[in-house]
Every structure is written in C-alpha cells, then in structure tokens.
Specification:
Blueprint lengths: L8 E3 L5 H10 L5 E6 L4 E4 L4 H10 L7 E6 L9 E2 L20 H12 L8 H12 L8 H4 L8 H20 L3 H20 L7 H16 L8 H17 L1
Antiparallel strand pairs: 1-3, 2-3, 2-4, 4-5
Helix pairs in contact: 2-8, 6-7, 6-9, 7-8
Length: 247
C-alpha cells in the first residue's frame, strides 16, 4: 500500500515555490520527487518513489514515453534547483540509457514546466512526433514483433514470466561478470516491463508494475538500494511462471 505520509498530488497548473518548500519540509526535508508529463505539461509530486508518481500519471491517461523523473531542491539557487535523476529515466528503447535526462531539449522543457512558464514553441510538431512514436515500433526495440501488438495477446502471467526470464538471464550474466550481456538482458527486461505497463488491461496493476520496473533498473543499473538478490527474483517470478503454464 502507498505510504499516506506522502499524499501524492497531480499538478496541472503552476505551483508556487513556497508550496513546494512546505511539501519538502513534511517529506525528505531538502528535496521533493516529481515526475513530469512533457506532452500534457503536468506533473505528479510528493511521493517516496518516482515509480508511484509515474503510476499516478499513467492512471490519468499519460503515455509512458512522455514521463521523466526529477528531484526538486526548492531552497537551492535556480540553476541548481532541478536534479535530473531517477530510475524511471532509464528508457533504452528511447535511447536514454542512464538515470539522467540526456536530451537537452527535454531538460529545457522540464525546467519550463516546473517554473510554470507557457510554451514558446508551437506544440504541433511535438504532437506529430508523439503520434509517430506511438504508431510505429522504434528501431531500437529488441522485441519488435511483441512491441507491434503481439505482447497484448499474452496473458498477464505470460507477460510477467517473460520479464522474469530476462531478469534471470541478467542475474546469470551478472554472476559471470559479463557486463555487455548483462546490460542487454536487463534492457530487454525493462522493455518488456514497459510493454506490460502500456497494456491497458493492466491499468489496475500499475503501482506494482512501475515499482517492479524501478527495482529492475536499480538492481542492474543502479546501486541496488532495494537489496535485490537472485533468490528474491526467483521467488517473485516463480509463481508467474507456474501460472503461465496453467493458462
């Protein structure tokens, strides 16, 4: 269950810096987590996990490719106020292979949205670009056939079992210190997690799925702050493998 000490908020209009400071004081003390939808120009704030803010936006109709996680330090100078750092920013299929936001144009848009400034460019080009992303399978996808629609034909148990297979491969390559093979398997796991999150049948499972994605990213690309172990992964995915074989 979500920790009610951090009552998430969906911000659709400008929020004053003083309000952010008040929320920060009640939470982490020096910063507040936020996830922005750069297409709708809205953001979710005030949660312990970016994954929960991501889920809130998805539940409200956002597209995952438009969501980026940041940390806001309201007491810092303007130039140092926004930290582009979140596990949800790991988007290999979109070419973003780190916790930061690598595209400077997206960074600038995030800064503008947080500041509550109106758009200075026409939105038509961005919308057209987004429709193109949604209607075509990017060449960077590992699972092109699955991304093209086949994934939605699998049951939830089958989807989770397939994610588990990639996680298991990543764990095995991690044990052997094969970094390139580890990265490939972990990226495929994230890609399948993204496809599962995007499947509209799973909307009531978004909190679990976005948290799962964050733990995968943390385990293989981060500092493993959640303490994931091979035994944890096996225990978690075993039930899905068993259920998939019964369906």
């Amino acid at each position: 269950m979500y920790n009610l000490v951090y009552p998430m908020q969906l911000i659709k209009t400008k929020i004053a810096l003083n309000e952010i400071k008040e929320l920060t004081a009640k939470g982490f003390g020096d910063f507040i987590k936020a996830v922005l939808d750069i297409e709708k120009e809205i953001m979710a704030i005030d949660a312990e996990l970016h994954a929960d803010e991501e889920a809130l936006l998805l539940e409200n109709g956002s597209k995952q490719e438009n969501l980026w996680g940041i940390n806001i330090y309201p007491s810092q100078p303007k130039a140092e106020r926004i930290e582009f750092d979140s596990m949800i920013n790991l988007k290999p299929s979109q070419g973003n292979r780190s916790r930061t936001v690598e595209d400077k144009t997206i960074q600038e848009k995030i800064i503008r949205i947080v500041a509550g400034k109106p758009a200075t460019k026409r939105r038509g080009f961005h919308n057209a670009r987004n429709r193109d992303f949604q209607s075509q399978v990017p060449s960077s996808y590992h699972h092109k056939t699955l991304a093209g629609g086949r994934w939605q034909k699998l049951s939830f148990f089958e989807q989770m079992a397939n994610i588990g297979s990639e996680v298991n491969r990543a764990v095995n390559w991690q044990k052997k210190n094969k970094k390139e093979l580890l990265q490939s398997a972990a990226e495929r796991a994230l890609e399948l997690a993204d496809l599962t999150i995007q499947d509209k049948r799973n909307i009531h499972r978004l909190r679990e799925l976005t948290r799962l994605r964050e733990v995968i990213a943390d385990c293989f690309f981060g500092d493993n702050i959640y303490g994931s172990t091979p035994q944890n992964w096996h225990s978690y995915f075993f039930a899905f493998n068993y259920a998939a074989r019964l369906t």
